[in-house]
Please model this.
Amino acid sequence: MSVEYIGFSEINGAFVAMEGVSGHFFDEIAEISLPGGQKKLGKIVEIQGDKAIIQVFDGTEDFDLNSAVTKLTGHPMRIKLSEEILGRVFDGLGRPIDGLGEIYGDSVRNINGAAINPVARVYPRNLIQTGISTIDGCATLIRGQKLPIFSGNGLPHDQLAAQIVRQASLGAGSAENFAIVFAAMGVKYDVADFFRRSFEESGALSRVVMFLNLANDPVAERVITPRAALTAAEYLAFEKDMHILVLLTDMTAYAEALRELSSVKGEIPSRKGYPGYLYSELASLYERAGILRGAKGSVTQIPILTMPNDDITHPIPDLTAYITEGQIVLDRRLHQQNIYPPINILPSLSRLMKDGIGEGYTRADHPDLSNQLYSSYARVGEVRALAAVIGEDELSDLDKQYMRFGAAFESLYVNQSRLDDRPVAETLRLGWELLGLLPQKELDRVSAAYLEQYYQPRTRSDR
Amino acid sequence: METTGEIYGINGPVLRVINCDDFHMSETVYAGPERLVGEVIGIKKGLSVVQVFEDTSGLAPGGEVRGTGKPFSVTLGPGILANIFDGIQRPLKMIERAVGPFIARGVHVSRLDQERLWETELLVKDGDPLLPGMAIAQTRETPVILHKAMVPPGLRGRAAQVKPSGRYTVADTLLTLIDDAGQAHELRLCQEWPIRVPRPVAAVKPVSRPLITGQRVIDTLFPIGKGGMAALPGGFGTGKTITQHQFAKWSDADIIIYIGCGERGNEMTQVLEDFSGLQDPRTGSLLMDRTALIANTSNMPVAAREASIYTGITIAEYYRDMGYHVAIMADSTSRWAEALRELSGRLEEMPAEEGFPAYLASRLASFYERAGEVETLDHSEGSVTIIGAVSPQGADFSEPVTQNTKRFVRCFWTLDRNLAYARHFPAIQWLTSYSEYLDNLAPWYRENVGEHFTDHRAEILKLLNQESELMEIVKLIGADVLPDPQKLILEIGRVIRLGFVQQNAYHPFDTYVPFDKQMKMMEVILRLYDRCRELVELGRPVSLLRSDGIFERVVAVKYNVPNDNIGLLDAYFQEIDAFYDRFAAAL
Model:
């Protein structure tokens, strides 16, 4: 049924209200035609009897109360999908913007998706080797995981994400079934272009689907973009049996868009003005990663977010980390010491790591080794704090060994070139080599058998 | 009596319904053509407010809302254990069978398997008096749990038309209860109970025995009693979920209800996989056989998340009424509080702190107060223990959910980010955690583990505290300048932290440690401390004692003494004494 309505009763920011409506339903999509021939999309976000409040995705500039013609489409927001979407570029609402024409889909899907039934999931266990020591060694990425990168403005998160995409190997037999879904929310044109070029250089462009909502695109469209992208990812993974890596950047811009819309709607704010449902909204995106029983494909997510003021307790990183299966945290201090990637392992974590490493996956000593590196590096932090007070010379011999271990860990293990694709075995070898800088009795997290097999003390004179 | 209303307004999960003056508060309703499940949460003349437990997208104004006349309830009966439900007790496996891997809207499946036949033994005969809570029949629900069908609270009378023992489904009538007014009530293997009303008991008793979790930092340092309530607050990545999993796996409760409230889908999958493969160390049966899971993951509808906590506690009370000790793990109560906040916002209520509704504290209180050791209506003993995880925003323990929870619980186990960073797990910080149950439990300890338990525990905690204070000094001036007795405290503190407090959840036997082994490990460490102190008094420097490696050997006790051969610990006392003799002699 498509009735057309003329004019609005109210316009407020991205929202318009219409009265005297009938046959409308919650979440229905409306098409608004302006006198100049422009068409805009919106959706019904609140209903009070015959009054409908519509959130307009692409801006309400040049709207007036009388002239627009609104058609209710009778369906919720959906996009057309087929395998043709690989290699294509879409706007934030899923409309092609690369001039290559419409998608003639074999499937039309509601972009809101539906929750995966926990009993239909397969617990993810297959490691994705990224070739980056800090990730493979200490916070592994697992196929079907959602593992965000927590960064700050000016830190090389884009370069890191591009390197992960370039080097990620999903294991044997997955190369041909591998694709990337890239969703940009409120990022600068340069950033989107950086990713496009990086995909092009690695020859992956034909296996990338891009959804772009740039910094100057409408805010209301931004809350749709990740949903459109994840719908495409689910389609490719669960209907076309592909392994999909989804990059979402920047989640901070997404959350800020939600806040902006919430405030215009006059909702009661919770922490820092973000709406009370921020957690639910973020969860409705992040939980769309995973593996289904009986399906051949998988959806792995790497959301990127810039922590406002580098504050990890800010609601956006905080709520994200409560939903995602760990986080990779970039550190400004390491970056300023010219260490790339500047990953601080201490706050970084992969919750799925314990089941994807060790015997039968990587190597039996991997869990112990990684625990020991964490524990020793945590101690380095304490020793550095002490050294800052009493001076490095006054430290005990043991503490001095920790200082040397810390410096070597950062410059040899954390630090690697943007083109360096380190195999897991090399990462493990490097880990043991560094532990050699510490006396054996300090290594309380590794079992005696592994110490016997891998540990070689390296006193100062050997070096 | 069936009543109907008409949808007027829709705002997310909240509906405003007109023409429905006959609705009751908390009544179950079905909204729209897909019959989405909802609950009445507010009534004004001419306008009711309904929260819907499913996604409301697609609902249209004018749609019918049909009342059921019954409060929102769960169905209690055999088939709950070894099963996994969503927040409103729909079995997830049945939903999968009905609609595939994604949860669709408007799925109507029976809460309990209607076809399955249970081998039932009737326990009463015609004419027997029936009292509330009395068992009328029993069936083996799982290999370890005998399920008792009970007279629902509030009903009393005489039994009539009692069926013979045999195989029955949950829908079959087992007998008819004729009450004093002469009215007939059919009793079955299952009964309904409204989730927001606590099930009545004969008496609430003080907590008197510990819930043994096999986790040293809990059982020894900050114990919880059966029927107790505890909160487990911690920022992300501090190990709340793993700690809750450990409790669910190893606690000596008879039945575990695990509520995944607004948490990750993969975690629930993991619990399901793990528990279906792991054996209960006490019974040898599968852990899943004593467990029910309630999974309302973070992307499932928010109103069902709010309900999931009540669904879980009602199920727990039901098994308690059969005379079982039940423990609930709620992960996480913060998500439940946030669901309250979200719904409150949609209702345009006046917010209190950080947007949470003003009734947050009273809701939390009424939830935790449903814990307790009780005398059931049938005069047997049972208990419900609640362990609620709290996820404070920004790991800030001054936020409203943590603070309000702290007022109502008696155990507070704070998870510490710095311990987690150093991979010290469980990351329960001994300086800020506490348990108020020690006095309750002291008689039990005296009787079951010996006189010295409480003294040893106090000694261990004192050493940990002294170590922390010394570490403050060390941070400023380094350890070298401390006098030897204090250096010794640092060494022993380290032994306690690494060898006792820290516990490896992935180690085959360190994951669960029996209480008598915990006690003995404490004794070994304290013996080491006493002997070392004597040596220090004799003028032996700590650096010399350290060179022996005895500290490392005591730290490694947890990996070298298996749970089934605790006798091996005795050798450590001799080893420590030999160490003393060696160093006391050598000058």
Observations:
- The domain at 366-462 of chain A is CATH 1.10.1140 (Bovine Mitochondrial F1-ATPase, ATP Synthase Beta Chain; Chain D, domain3).
- Chain A touches chain B through 83 residues (CB under 8 Å).
- The longest strand of chain A covers residues 39-48.
- Chain A has 13 helices and 19 strands.
